[in-house]
Amino acid sequence: VIDISKLYAQGDVFTYDPGFTSTASCESTITYIDGEEGVLLHRGYPIQQLAEKSSYLEVCYLLLYGDLPTAAELEKFVHDVTHHTMLHEQMYNFTRGFRRDAPPMAIMVGMVGAMSAFYHDSTDITDPWQREVAAFRMIAKMPTIAAVAYKYSIGQPFVYPRNDCDYATNFLRMCFSLPAEDYMPNPILSRAMDRIFTLHADHEQNASTSTVRLASSSGANPFACIAAGIACLWGPAHGGANKAALEMLEEIGTPDRIPEYIARAKDKDDPFRLMGFGHRVYKNFDPRAVVMKQSADEVLDLLGIEDNPILQVAKELEKAALDDPYFADRKLFPNVDFYSGIILNAMGFPTSMFTPIFAVSRTVGWVSQWKEMLMDPKQKIGRPRQLYMGATERDYVEVEDR
Ligand code: ACO
């Protein structure tokens, strides 16, 4: 590792690194990834152990404060987060200003940005107490905001959070309850939802997290920074992978068409790829996908796939690809997005909710990285350089002479 900033200060060292593939922008103690070995650690703890033994809110505490909480610390943390889940009534009114068929992700970007206006008593980043309140507000209110965005997009009344429900149960309730019946999800579904949140909680300096850090480097308020992160996540190359995987399953339609799509994926003259297979970072296996597959199996066992052709295609496609030497030789396994898409579809979520749910999960990662950055005395305003490739200096020509 070369500290270019020191070399730059000494002379004229300059690097060109599109996509920042070999440039670290910060030091961090939150998440470690070894893609070759299939390792993902949060504060040193393997993601498999956290997904197995922990809850999402416990992982939130770990990411935010660096250590697993004691029982008393966890109880207080859960209590504090739960008691911030309500939105100010004016935020519900604000939501009603959107077009009735607005995509949930568009509503979320707007609502989180608007938190700077509704909760401006926690926007002073120089005040540690305000920083803490802002962190709690974002983690607690994000599921409520996502559920409000969903309900609004389908024209149903908003459902308020309930303080006696855990984080994942509350979210599922707020999405699927109707005024006539207070829907209570099966604990297996709540657990699967909690795992989806846990497995997406942080992934070090990905595009949206880097966006949050860059926005924050100017001293912008926390809600504006997280809104910037959500906007970045919205892009199909980042948050849209499970949606793309599900849409491909819909396109395949029936299991008998799977061989045709497998053949297309192997054909080097066809740009088609099996969505939800392979990973840029994890070259052996994605440790999150292993846990997510287990959850997907539990959910499908509970709900059955007989009436759902998409889930039948998913099951058959997974088997066909795992048995095919093309995919085995290239280590192209189903990734976390393949399984999360299946689970969310089985639960009844439309694909338009997949990225909002990713945003709910990732909020704690963004907030933890934002807090870490504010505490780092070495951080300065983010200001990448450029390689200027344009015209050299030339004289202005009057418009009638051009
Ligand atoms: N279907 C068919 N072939 C594939 C696939 C796929 N999904 N993914 C990779 N390959 C093949 C490539 O054609 C290449 O074959 P070759 O060696 O014969 O030329 C080989 O596997 C290696 O592929 P690369 O493109 O070098 O792998 P890379 O690391 O660049 O790509 C990526 C990773 C982008 C994720 C790729 O696997 C892909 O496009 N997958 C489908 C989209 C997807 O699921 N994306 C979400 C990933 S999860 C996440 O980002 C959170």
Describe what this molecule looks like in 3D.
By secondary structure, this protein is mainly α. 55% of the residues lie in helices and 2% in strands. It contains 18 helices and three strands. Strands 1-2-3 form a three-stranded antiparallel beta sheet. A hairpin with a 4-residue loop joins strand 1 and strand 2. Helix 9 packs across helix 18. The radius of gyration is 23 Å and the shape is globular. The model has no long low-confidence stretch (mean pLDDT 93). Bound molecules: acetyl coenzyme *A. The site of acetyl coenzyme *A has 14 residues, from loops.
* Mean pLDDT figure: 93
- Count of discrete alpha- or pi-helical segments spanning 4 or more residues: 18
User: How big a fraction of the residues is strand?
Assistant: under 5%
Distance between the termini: 51 Å
Q: What is the 3D shape?
A: globular
Number of strands: 3
N-to-C SSE series? HEEEHHHHHHHHHHHHHHHHH
Query: Radius of gyration in whole Å, from Cα?
Result: 23 Å
Q: Unreliable runs, pLDDT <50, ≥5 residues?
A: none
Give the names of the bound compounds.
acetyl coenzyme *A
Cross-sheet strand order for the largest sheet: 1-2-3
Residue share in helix: 40-55%
Largest sheet: 3 strands, antiparallel
Based on helices, strands and strand pairing, what is the structural class?
mainly alpha
